[in-house]
Specification:
The chain is built from nine helices and four strands; from the N terminus they run H-H-E-H-H-E-H-H-H-E-H-E-H. It has a single domain (about 20-175), classed as 3-Layer(aba) Sandwich (NADH Oxidase), CATH 3.40.109.10. It is about 40% helix and about 15% strand. The model has no long low-confidence stretch (mean pLDDT about 95).
Length: about 200
């Protein structure tokens, strides 16, 4: 059992982790963004499809491009965050399956079934976005995931060729103490789970 996280690790990733709405004026170094991706990429996806794509919006110019597509209540805090990640996905992830999953010729499963490809890209891309949050917390960063934005506008601005599609946004950096809302309740086991 020595490979189980101790309480401090569990607190860092889950129990004490919060969604931040304010940010310290501290830069997130490029090397840390590389470490972040190099950690999150190991999370599982079906057929090792890895459809998620990550755009780290960090420069003032890139933030100015993002701002008009944010819900008004998300604009100020997102502009103050050191980085805002556009968690996107590649709808044609299956073109990479011969390289990423050589054990089986899985590309035809998706190339010939648009509905399955779309559901797989969104589901697994969202999983990878969750891995991003956990990896960021593990590396000492705080997160502010959000869906209050115009995905069509973001896609036109950042992915005009249509190759990627936005899923959700996640501000990352060093959170300002006191900026999270009061902790909201969670469902108890018996309200959210069944054991059959």
């Amino acid at each position: 059992m020595s490979n189980i996280l101790d309480d401090a690790g569990l607190d860092l990733l889950f129990r004490n982790a919060r969604t931040f709405n304010g940010w310290q004026d501290r830069k997130v170094e490029p090397e840390l963004l590389h470490r972040l991706y190099d950690l999150l990429k190991w999370g599982p996806t079906s057929f090792n499809c890895q459809p998620a794509r990550f755009v780290f919006v960090q420069s003032p110019e890139a933030k100015a491009r993002l701002k008009p597509h944010l819900m008004a209540s998300n604009q100020e805090k997102t502009m103050k965050a050191p980085v805002c990640v556009i968690v996107a996905y590649d709808p044609k992830f299956y073109d990479y399956l011969p390289e990423m999953y050589p054990a089986v010729d899985a590309r035809p499963f998706f190339a010939d079934n648009a509905a399955l490809a779309d559901a797989t890209a969104k589901r697994n891309g969202t999983l990878q976005g969750g891995y991003l949050i956990m990896a960021a917390r593990a590396l000492g960063l705080d997160c502010g995931p959000m869906s209050g934005f115009n995905p069509d506008g973001v896609d036109k601005e950042f992915f005009p060729d249509g190759q990627w599609k936005s899923n959700f946004l996640c501000a990352i950096g060093y959170g300002e103490p006191g900026s999270p809302y009061p902790r909201s309740p969670r469902f108890e086991f018996d309200r959210a789970c069944k054991v059959l």
